Amino acid sequence: MARSTRVFAAVATATLLAVAAAGCSDSGGKDAEENDGGGGGGGGVNTPRMEIAMVTHSAPGDTFWDIVQSGSKQAAAKDNVEFLYANSEKDDEQARLVQTFVDKKVDGIVVTLAKPEAMKSAVQAAVDAGIPVVTINSGAEFSKEYGALSHIGQEESVAGEAVGEELNERGRKNAVCVIHEQGNVGLEQRCAGVKKTFSGSVENLTVDGASKPAVLSGIQAKLEADGGIDSVVTLNADVAASAVEAKDASGSKAEVATFDLNAAVAASLESKQLSFAVDQQPYLQGYLAVDELWLYETNGNVIGGGQTVLTGPAIVTEEDAPDLKKFTERGTR
Amino acid sequence: MTATLPADPAPKAADERLLDASPLHRLLGRPELGSVIGAVAVFLFFAVLADSFLSSLDTVLYAASTIGIMAVPVALLMIGGEFDLSAGVLVTSAALTSTMVAYEMTANVWVGVFVSLLVTLAIGFFNGYMLVRTGLPSFIITLGTYLMLWGANIGITKRIQGTVSTKSISDMQGFESARVLFASSIDVGSFKVRVTILWWIGLVALATWILLRTRWGNWIFAVGGGKDAARAVGVPVQRTKIGLYLGVAVAAWISGQHLLFSFSGVVQSAEGRGLELHYIAAAVIGGCLLTGGYGSAIGAAIGALIFGMAKQGIVYAQWDSDWFWFFLGAMLLLATILNSWVRKRAEAAR
């Protein structure tokens, strides 16, 4: 026992030393990263310190919500705001988190309404306690009813419809809509939106989003099973990369389009492996929500005058790629 | 049967063991027999029902290999009487470590790959060491590791790289050569052999050799069959169990490198959750007992094959994908029931 521990430690140390002595990469890596600063920002304001909490339905480690948070933090830094964040995929837990912040008497709450019924009483409790609430992302139709100041986001079905129209314009006939998280209402709405406006046929395909090899082989299987597919629509930037791999591996001629952005998507747009992406500007959702609460507190303003403020859908293609690459790499677009 | 020796052994006496040694009976006694029949059934089912199933067997094998690489050490661990719930996220940890070490140090990609091996082995060692030191069930120990790794994967990635998925290392030195080893493919006619399939076959062969031909194999069966009895006859129980967790770590490292090098060098930090159950399922379908002491590496490979065939076959058959998980669950249950039914018949016939 003790011997194996010591042997292990010795091997570990030796290898680490060997590794440290090994060569460096002349290309890529941190040294190549240009320091174009994403965070930070100017001097900020001298209005009283505020506390704003955000509660989302995000799964942990989701790129999209990470970008939303970047936006909020940037606005918070500028507005002299203490930004608090919590998330849970489970609707009852999300509601409880909102209640926790109500009890904490924060100065404003940002909340997503992906599961509106579950959030209703929590949002109303905040409003009753005199805490202004801004809703973001999905659930625009419930925002006002629940007593929120305003809603900032994108209608999932509208975004899907935009994709359907874009596919029509590109003369596509036969699309697959890849659902990477079964039972997610927003994802279903996106595919339903595509189906609504697309004049060709749309089929949904469920894959296991927890494993990239599974996503790859699932999409590849679909393309092999049906040679008539000419478009693959993915609903998340990370799935898009696997869809491109699957297309190459299966020898299919299908074009891949996706919702949402990340650095890899921007690069694939530039190399035309992806035909287009739908950006709902998550950074803007986080940024505007915090800004809205600050504006309301300091100046009584309501962005959009109480109407839903749309952040998307914006369709981006290879023409936008050079700028997008810069922004996606620092995690703000 | 072996328990009752008749008073007059003359007519049957040593026959029993002699009979068992005949090839047919040896075959019937193998743990993977049932799963072979299950695999054949699933294969025929989809070969008939799904048009492009036969022409796309390379994709099926790829899907099976990504589960199969992990199912091998997970099966050994189960034969040794333990579980590892952290195996799924450990794969992601291995991939994240390679990419972030290489990126942050601007080092050759191979540096990241080797550091990752050390880190992964250290986590496997932690699981094993905690297990033998605390005496707690492996379920609890590895559940703790699972949650810690899951959180650390996201937390550390976010802290170091600023976003929850890593930056691409595909333009760095060493990437192409590492890609050849972990994520390339060879065309044999129209059949695309992905390198994961070779890794898989290699691991199955190695594990089978260890189990059946070495002292280590005897130890693994012994500690899974009964820890105290094993210790009483001089089996180094603690070292064996730690070794089994190190085995899982090595396979997780290989899988992690595949994850990294096949997807343009970008890793999603929240990935891998739930996959540990797929590995365990493959081992169980392949005839490993949940209670330990019984099973085989080949069985686990066939379990992974059934898993891969069902997973891909459902798509090839163009079934409504809303029902995907239902179909997959039903196929697995059927395959396993068939498997245990065949095994019981085989044992009864013995």
Main sheet characteristics of chain B: 2 strands, antiparallel
The order of strands across the largest sheet of chain A is 2-1-3-4-5-11
Q: Calculate the mean pLDDT score of chain A and round it.
A: 88
Counting DSSP H or I runs of 4 or more residues, the number of helices of chain A is 13
Query: How much helical structure, as a percent, in the residues of chain B?
Result: over 70%
Structural class by helix and strand composition of chain B: mainly alpha
Q: For the CA atoms, what is the radius of gyration of chain A? A: 23 Å
C-alpha end-to-end distance of chain B? 9 Å
Gyration radius of chain B (Cα, Å) is 22 Å
Uncertain spans of chain A = 35-41
Q: What's the number of extended β-strand segments of chain A?
A: 12
What is the number of helices of chain B?
15
String of helices and strands of chain A: HHEHEHEHEHEHEHEHEHEHEHEEH
Biggest β-sheet of chain A, characterized?
6 strands, parallel
Query: Would you count the extended β strands of chain B for me?
Result: 2
Helix content of chain A: 40-55%
Please give the oligomerization state of what you see: heterodimer
Structural class of chain A: alpha/beta
Poorly predicted sequence stretches spanning 5 or more consecutive residues of chain B: 1-14
Can you tell me about this structure?
The complex is a heterodimer of chains A (333) and B (350). Chain A is an alpha/beta fold. Helix content of chain A is 48%, strand content 18%. Chain A has 13 helices and 12 strands. In chain A, β1, α3 (63-79) and β2 form a beta-alpha-beta unit. In chain A, α9 (212-225) crosses α10 (237-250). Chain A starts with a helix and ends with a helix. Chain B is mainly α and 350 residues long. In chain B, strands 1-2 form a two-stranded antiparallel sheet. The longest helix of chain B has 26 residues, at 109-134. The relative contact order of chain B is 0.20. The model of chain B is unreliable at 1-14 (pLDDT under 50). At the A-B interface, α1, α2, α3, β7 and α9 of A face α4, α5, α6, α7 and α12 of B.
